[in-house]
# Entry
Amino acid sequence: MQRGRVAAPFEKLKKIFFRQGSWKKALPAIFLLAGGLLLLGNFLFPGVKEYSFAGQQAGTDYLPEGLKNEAGGRQQDFRAAGGEPVEGETFSRVMLIILDKITYQDLLSFSGPVLASMLEESAVALMNVNTAGAAGTESGYLTIGSGARLAANWTVRRAFNRRETWHGDEVEALYRRHTGSPHVPPGEVLHLYSGVLQRLNEQRPYPALVGALGESISKKGLGAAVLGNADGDTHNRQVVAIAMNSEGVVAYGEVGSSLLKEKEDFPFGKGSDPLAYLKALESLWEKSSFIVVEWGDTSRIDDYLAHLPHERRDELLRASLQELDQFLQGIRPYLTGGTKLLLLAPSLPNPPFSGGQRLAPVLYHDPASAGPGLLVSATTRRPGVVTNIDIAPTVLNSLGLARPVFLFGVPVRVSPAADHLEKLAALSERIVRIYNQRPAVIRGYLVAQMVLLLGALGGLFFRVKQVKFLQPGLYTLLYFPPAALLAAAFPQYPASSLYANAFLLVALTILLTLFAVYFFRNILAFFSFTGLLNFGLLTVDLFRGAPWISQSFMGYDPVGGARFYGMGNEYMGIMVGSFILGFGSLITLVFLEAKTAPEGEKKKAAAGAAVAGIMWLFIFCSFLVLFLMASPVYGANFGGAVTAGVALAVTLGGLLALFKQEGYSLLPFLRHRTAGRKARAFLFPQKVLLLAFFVLVTGALLYFLNIPRSDAAVSHLGRTLDLVRSDGLQELWNIALRKMEMNLRLIRYSLWSRVLFMFIFLITALYFYPVGLTKQNFQEKPGFKATLGGIIAGSFTSFAVNDSGVITAATTMLYGGLPLLLLCYEKIFPR
# Structure
């Protein structure tokens, strides 16, 4: 008897959710379709191209035959080969070698034996090269030297040795003329436009100091040096921007023409002289803790591309990197003890020659470290990906210096990895594919939303029965986001073909939609399954480190650089909206079932307990969502936490009001029987108590989870708190201003804004017409009113607090506006 009473509610829920006998009929077809998709996936996605370095010595197997013989006698381990260590090597030192305008594929294809050996022995990564201006040479160099994304122009290239002249004027005189200072600071290299560069960036909505890296080094009494140039038909000394202090001065260095030699068959008839570089380096070594070397040949080749066919670039680049090998061979005696070597490209080649690459290569060599691997920083938390703002903190950390608070990057560290070069090549190709195909995929989805919504809304208004065939398409709109998430689970996804990826996404969307429509006949059950499926998938992915989100077309990409980890804005809105839709629909279902429970005090009490139990589950999972959003380890999304807090509080408030109206209680111990009557009265407003607790927990999670601690555990919010402590509340206004500017830009140019406005129009229109239809839905499904209210509140909140608020508002509203339209469809065009 007891068993029957326990099983009865589950039987009723089963009848509510599932068609009779549908599991037995559908399971074989589901398994066959899933198996077919797996086979099709393996066929469509044969694998990302792999680069094999197995068995190579010094990496010469991918060199031309003529170079292999020349390199044969020099193939040795990079650490072991070379001369004797330099005497007196007792303190840390960093050498930064600049190879501008090259890609990771260039390093793999054209490196000489010494550089190839270094690649094998070192940690490598792809570097995001975004700046506050165009992603090019000028802004790239200044961003690295300043540790913040800044913009620059031609003036960044104008730096000289102290005793040089320019256009007939002495450099010292020009420096005094530009700065207005009667005295020229001591230093061998002067930048003539450091003040101009600071003026160009003084309106940035974040603190920045031009020359921050050199300033931090010189303030501690350590020496910085710069060596080399990229001179072509004009002076190109932008490398000085990396090592100079705030006054535009570098203590030691040589950037003049003495480092070049005549080369008739090379761009501009000149090229870097490795012997001259080595001689200059010898004179700088003992005096300097930080040395920046510009191997300018790669820049000269890129500046000359207008005169070259594609294959000629390859020939010149191979020849230049062979000469670089002579310099690398010569510096081997210096690479001992505390000396660390960085090699990177501040910017990428011209697009026709970049092979679609959008991230630049970085190499980190530490003779005292364990060996090769992939670089990672707390900025990206993704092995193999770092940013250009991480370079300055890395240099300071290697020298044992503290990082100023306005350096937004974090020192890189080595994540040991076998076959690191092959893994980075595969990662590079995957990133390029997602970046190149993402706009077409997202645009197609948004256009489908607009077309289907307009058609369905017009058909509803004018009672055109023929538009009922659009209803399956409307269902698929809800299932494209989870399909895009699950597609990343395929090991070789994405394919090189856009059409293959689109086919897989459409197939997964249709599969999920058919599954839900077939098994969940009740529209509320359908909504509940849809929302809870999204919530479950995203929760599991976040606990796993977000591998699916990071590789989804609806996730984030390292090229854009707005986010590298956690919960992206698209899926943040989807999680909040679908979670509220899923639980709101489930609570409404259980609430309606409780209202139709058989008469009898015990049965009514059991029904009420079931409703209260689902509500407590909703509250518990709400705090889980808040934790995931606020945690710097998982979601790391401050805007998402605020959005979820507001949306869930509004939803909870609406549901609690409904509970009170029907006489249910979540906290039985706070109620008592009114004397002489059976009705129950509440000793304390439960709604106020629960909402106050909800707000307190939200605030506590946001604060205590993001208190600045170690770099690996601090989120964007944590860094913001640190910045506010040091620079005051003005930084909060700067952040708000930046978010408003981004939202205005998205409103003007993004399709997401059109989708958002369409949902706002749809909900507003359905509220008034057909007359009384929405009100009838709210009366028949009372919990849905609170659900929709919470989603709308979350949508508007996300717009206000996120820098891509248009996107988050649109994805949140998807799970409010579209279900309302489908409920109206159920009334006007019943099945």
Observations:
- The radius of gyration is 32 Å.
- Confidence is low (pLDDT under 50) at residues 1-10, 19-32, 38-90, 672-684.
- Residues 567 and 635 are 5 Å apart (CA to CA).
- The domain at 60-81+94-418 is CATH 3.40.720.10 (Alkaline Phosphatase, subunit A).
